[in-house]
């Protein structure tokens, strides 16, 4: 007998605008935090112990926040639709923009951040040319290269940087449903895969299994692998009931995958075989973002989902 | 001179013997006489008797001797004889002489004697008579020689006794009949006797001797006519089939036998034979061309079995038609038969006035026949078939009965398929069901050949055994591979996923008026669907608002069309309308009943109105359950006292009755359901009377008493239901009266659906109306009603009508009894 699907652990409300993106920061010993970026340009910092909003950051005028990530406990990075990427310092209760970068992109593509070496990061961001992705090094902002496909693939929709044995790579999803694997250091495409018929809306990658997953505006989620010759190969397709995926997120332990759907539902799959595990219903509008916390203790790991209905729901599932 | 002398001697001797038998006291004398008599019957006794004398004895004196012996049963000498002596001297007299005379005497004696030791002995002798194959001897004696010199009357009597033996003995010996005299064993015996006689006939014919089969044929005929056909041919037919398979002489003998059956018994013989034989080929071998030579047989085969009777199994029709098709000389009969069947099938009046079962039977015969025709014959019958296709299918499709329409479609398709293989063919849309499959199966040829069905059997078994072994060998690596592939996904048990459904694209309406708005002017398919889904619930939850817009909402629902092919549209629409009617009964029923008789509605909408009214009435008539909440506590105290008093009094009476009554039937107890208040009783009139208002005023588009009898039948059913649901309401008397008046004019409607509706109404009235009112209202019509119902119960073509009429009669009688015997 199947169990009834769980209810959210708790929900966060009162944002006053659709929530576009979420980011956890739960490293010990500090109090666990959740950052949320809304369509009115506010970045809320939520204290997960008190479940209250601690602070609101406003650095992108009133433009929608597209993406949030953190370089370290004290340094937040945010991307807004004002075409800027800002670096924040939150140390000792401050909330200042320490640096900013003009990305010049009018699209909705989210940036991707990856730790390069000690104290350095790689940031991939979209540019004024809709098909192009630029990779820079932080905090020096030194450009590492520009990745632009030769064939017509349309706008770049989503991307993810990954560290492999042969240097940093980038997987990008394009408007015509193609996935392209780029070698960042050599600035050339290694392989491409026509995974979808509609624009690729989101992708995630599991470096330990060399396996990724992508979702689009259509009714399927595709998983694909990276073989020894750095070639992308389609592995499995999961058919959904309703079309449209806003975001896909793998739990860091590589056990489950969560999808944020346009049909107001959050779906959970087993990562190995893409077996559907749960369909979570709470939101009353499109779910825009879903992410897992980086708690050290696996028991406390949570999943957070943000929706256009101005609410954030937190779930405890398969801990 | 010598023969005359011999005759004289025999007569003298026999007279002497009989005298001794009647008068002698001494057992030795008797034994001597009996021994002397046996000498006339059996060879090998000393003092050989010339054969002329023997013949003379058998012809003229045997019966008298036997009669004397039977008389002697009560004499002293018979009782003094030992069992062995009786067997040796007395019984043998019966078992050795001419069997026909012995049989007559035995049966006569058994019929005449009262229960006694003598009767018991006679029964034993008769059993012995059957056991020793005397019947076969009898049959052979009359096959060997044509005329044994006896009169036709005697022959007739022998025939009667021979065939009637089970009945004659049963009449006399009823509780203790020996097994050999029961119909089944006796028929088996008779069958094997006939078969052996036929065998002997064949041998005789081979050796050049003439035989005469008329007595045998008459025996067969009479037995079949007396109802032993199935039993007799049950054992005979397989044997005949087997013998005729290899031997042409047997075929000739069988055909001759059937030709010799007198006309008055021909039908019984042919029918039983066709019913028991297993394939048309065997039938053809046994019957030969009897159908051509004997007009009676021809009539039975080509007309009676197909067009007048319809209780036979399909195999009978198959045998019969196959038999006709097997010989070129008989094929004209087949085409003639098909013409007749076509005429019957496309006859409009027949469709109306014959039972559905018969139409099904005729249709099957038509299809089977069609399947047997060759191209040339099809060409010849082209015009008949075309007629069938054009008018026959038309008539069938006009019918109200689903099965008849379906028959029309299936048969139409099959005929068109046979007629024209090149041009376009008829094709109807119908859901295949058991009946249509049964009909279509007629077009498939049946493989009756036992040899072909048996021989290929062993081969597949061998083939089947191999694959599992191979798969067993190949399985393990696969299984291991999948096992090794098992991973952490399986330790994560999935949750239930009820939310995993197709997303409604537009929001469900929250207000009744929004919902109405959405249904009136929305070009958005999703919105209409959402409104329809939500409507019924919304209306029931907001009765006040619903009452404000009920009529308008009903109007919209009645005119709503399924423009977007919404899932479950019909049921959603009905539910919504029922919700409206239930929430605000009076205005909505006013509207619906008025619209039922107005212009410019299609049949579907009128039927919808009726259905909605019936469903709503049903829902309203459910008892109101949450009563105690609203009664004030003060009133409850007094009411309770009275109530308990009442219960007490009732219980006492009931207990007293129960203790004094013996219940013989164990059926469900007859206690009527206790009357409870419901919401329907106050408004029942609003549902009912307006529907009776305008039925006789035909509109341009709607003629209830004319062509729209489908609506009429639904209307009657609905009215019946409305009356039935109003049981115990005060208004039911008026309703029942009005309904009976309405229905009275429709008693003899041509359409069986309407008649059924009428009977449903009558049943409903009889069940619902209080019996005293019923009798007052019916008063002078009671007798008319009874005769009408009895007539329907007996003669109506429709089985449902008949059973409903019976039910009505029972109800009426119950009411009468209740009223007349207080």
Automatic annotation (TrEMBL), chain A:
WD repeats lie at residues 12-56, 166-192, 193-234, 280-319. SUPFAM superfamilies: WD40 repeat-like. SMART domains: WD40 (SM00320). PROSITE patterns: WD_REPEATS_1, WD_REPEATS_2, WD_REPEATS_REGION. It comes from the Eukaryota. InterPro entries: WD40/YVTN_repeat-like_dom_sf, WD40_PAC1, WD40_repeat_CS, WD40_repeat_dom_sf, WD40_rpt. The keyword Zinc does not apply. Pfam families: WD40. The keyword Repeat applies. Keywords: Repeat, WD repeat. This is Guanine nucleotide-binding protein subunit beta-like protein 1. It comes from Denticeps clupeoides (denticle herring). The lineage of its organism: Eukaryota, Metazoa, Chordata, Craniata, Vertebrata.
TrEMBL record, chain B:
Residues 331-421 form the TELO2 ARM repeat domain. Residues 446-456 have a biased composition (Polar residues). It comes from Denticeps clupeoides (denticle herring). The lineage of its organism: Eukaryota, Metazoa, Chordata, Craniata, Vertebrata. Coiled coil: none annotated. One of its GO terms (biological process) is 'de novo' cotranslational protein folding. It is found in: Cytoplasm; Membrane; Nucleus. One of its GO terms (molecular function) is Hsp90 protein binding. InterPro entries: ARM-type_fold, TEL2_C_sf, TEL2_Regulation, TELO2_ARM, Telomere_length_regulation_dom. The keyword Cytoplasm applies. Keywords: Cytoplasm, Membrane, Nucleus. Belongs to the TEL2 family. This is Telomere length regulation protein TEL2 homolog. Residues 509-617 form the Telomere length regulation protein conserved domain. Residues 446-508 are annotated as: Disordered. One of its GO terms (cellular component) is membrane. It comes from the Eukaryota. Pfam families: TELO2_ARM, Telomere_reg-2. The keyword Manganese does not apply.
